[in-house]
Amino acid sequence: MPIPSAVPPRVLTVAGSDSGGGAGIQADLKTMLALGVHGMSVLTAVTAQNSLGVQGAWELPAEAVRAQYRSVVDDIGVNAVKTGMLSSAVLVETVAALIAETDAPAVVDPVGVSKHGDPLLAAEALDSVRTKLLPVATVATPNLDEVAQITGVRVTDEAGMRRAAAEMLGLGPRWVVIKGGHLPGDPVDLLTDGSEEHWLRAPRHDNRHTHGTGCTLASAIACGLARGQDVPTAVRAAKTYVTGAIAAGFALGAGIGPVGHGWQLRNAG
Predict the structure, then answer these.
(1) How far is it, in rounded angstroms, from Cα 87 to Cα 70?
(2) Exactly one of 215, 243, 244, 257 is catalytic; which is it?
(3) Which residue out of 22, 180, 212, 249 is catalytically annotated?
(4) What is the CA radius of gyration of the chain?
(5) From the candidates 214, 224, 244, 249, which is the catalytic residue?
(6) Which helix (H) or strand (E) holds 92?
(7) Is the whole-model pTM more than 0.90?
């Protein structure tokens, strides 16, 4: 007789595909496997992508995105949702409406550009991100380029991160993580809900192979929330995980390689 096993926490990623396997849906599912949750996916776009950049992107119809989401949520259920690449206003608004109907925390990674600088969000979709998607987010995780896109705040130091967080929180998310990895010095992120502040610091690793960092962090936060952790606990654990993944990043192709999602498993071996 087979021995029944406990059902792990279930996390749903709503994002685009990265054919190179370093970011997007692929990074999300690798993170979820590494952190012991059951990962599920709603594909929003297909990209032709490798270590050098994004060579093409094809958005799925809103009805296909909605059908995937409802198929998973209505039968299997979810303990947390994570969003990534939502390339158009119609997809942003479709996904925001679905999240609003779902009784689970949502981590919104407002993906605007790829690691290589390729645009992944239409300019006309920014207003939908501000007015529809961010208000349903439990945690939003913008990097400094995305902060500038969404709020107009250009961050050059830690004081600027605090101003950026206030602007982002004004758009409706319960918590925001301002990712300061592009500032000089050791990487620092600011997690705040407007009353609590948590400055998360980590050593900077001399490794340029960091493709998928943002997707990985947001997915790791969703994994913690799915396990019932509070937001600060989930974000701190995610920061530790992604720091290790950056240290384990490896060369792949001729450009920027991916982070090492399985670093804990390799270290355990």
Answers:
(1) 20
(2) 215
(3) 212
(4) 17
(5) 214
(6) helix 89-100
(7) yes
Quickly list DSSP for 1-17. -PPP-PPPPEEEEEEEE
Residue with tokens 């439990």: 138
pLDDT above 60 (res 1)? no
Mapping DSSP to helix (H, G, I), strand (E, B) and coil, where does residue 197 land? strand
Is 181 one of the catalytic residues? no
Catalytic member of 30, 115, 179, 239:
179
Give 113's pLDDT tier (boundaries 50, 70, 90). low
What residue type is assigned to position 262 of the chain? G
Catalytic residue flag (residue 213) = yes
User: Hey, what amino acid is at 87?
Assistant: S
Q: Let me know if 94 is a catalytic residue.
A: no
- Whether 210 is catalytic is yes
Q: Confirm if 32 and 262 have CB atoms less than 8 A apart.
A: no
Q: What is the pLDDT of residues 142-199, one digit of tens each?
A: 999 999 999 999 999 999 999 999 999 999 999 999 999 888 888 899 999 999 999 9
